[in-house]
Structure formats: C-alpha cells, structure tokens
Design a protein that fits this description.
By secondary structure, the protein is of the alpha+beta class. The chain contains 6 helices and 12 strands.
Amino acid sequence: MKEQQEEKPIYEESALNDNDNTPWYGVQLYGLKSKELSAYLTEKAIESFVPMHEVVAIDSKGKRKHELRPVISNLIFIKKLEDDKVLTATIDEYYKGHYYIIRKVRGSREYYKIPARQMKEFMIMCDPNLMMKKYLSEKEAKLKKGDRVKVTHGPLKGLEGRLVRASGKYYLLKEIPGMAVMIKVTRWCCEKTE
C-alpha cells in the first residue's frame, strides 16, 4: 500500500535529462505584449516561454471566468539561437527595439545565459496546474535565506533549488533573471546539496 502512495513526478524525467544544453535569455519588453511576441516567435520556429497563471476575470456581463495571463506581463524567456544577431533581428521585426535582453552585469554587453536545466526546472515549477506556489521578484528572492537542496521524493522529485520558509511553510525556490517561483514542498523530501 505504501508503494502505491509514492507520488509520481509531475514531469517526464527525460525532459530534465535530455541532451539539449542550449541556454535561454530573459527579455524584458517595454510594453505588455509577451503573449503576442511568444506567438510570433513560435511562427518563426524560435522557442520561447511566458510564465502564466490562472486568474479569475469578470466579463462585461458580470460573469466570472478563469483565464491564463502572464505572471509578469513584460517578461519573456527565449531559447538562444546560434547567432544572437538573428535573434535580435527577429525580435526587432515584431517589437522594433522596445525590449532589453537581460545582461550578465549592468552595463555589460554580454547577455545572461540561463542554463538549460535551470530553465527546464523553472518551466516545470511554473505549470499553472500546480497549486501552492508563489511568484517573487528578483529582489524578493535575494532576501530569502535557504540551503541548496534536491527533492528526493514526491511529485517534484529531481528538481533543485533553495529550501526557504515563508508563512510557516517550506518552499522550493527557483530563481532566474527577472523573477523567481516558490512551490510548496515537504522539507523531509529534500536533501542538502553543495
């Protein structure tokens, strides 16, 4: 009976362990068109990701409806292409310079490359179907203290992040440039890493 209660991961393990090591960029837009830009990039065969969450909206007739909206309306993550000039030219075709690719250091010309595994874990944790999660700004995430851990049991098995405490509960915190996500986890299911 105990074996049947073991929760299966909420993702395919092969998704985290595939051979695709292509990094991602965080892109801040000077407008609120992250969903539209994502659709445009998909047409151009460029992979992108916009963190979404479900909100309750009231339509013109006063009825409540659930819809997916971007967590941060001006932030999109784009998978790196072989040539950064091709990527910027493609974004310029749609957005005409009204964006900023997050840099490694302020004032630097080098873009911050989000490692593929870190981005995959972040995308898993942003799944709108997962409950008990909180989104944080980059500044708020930096204020959180916690040990680096790897989840060893349950539906989040294999994910890595920092174990932090908020409101008397434990969360797995995953940070990437521009934002962070915390998802509720049992601390007994985590193992400290270096």
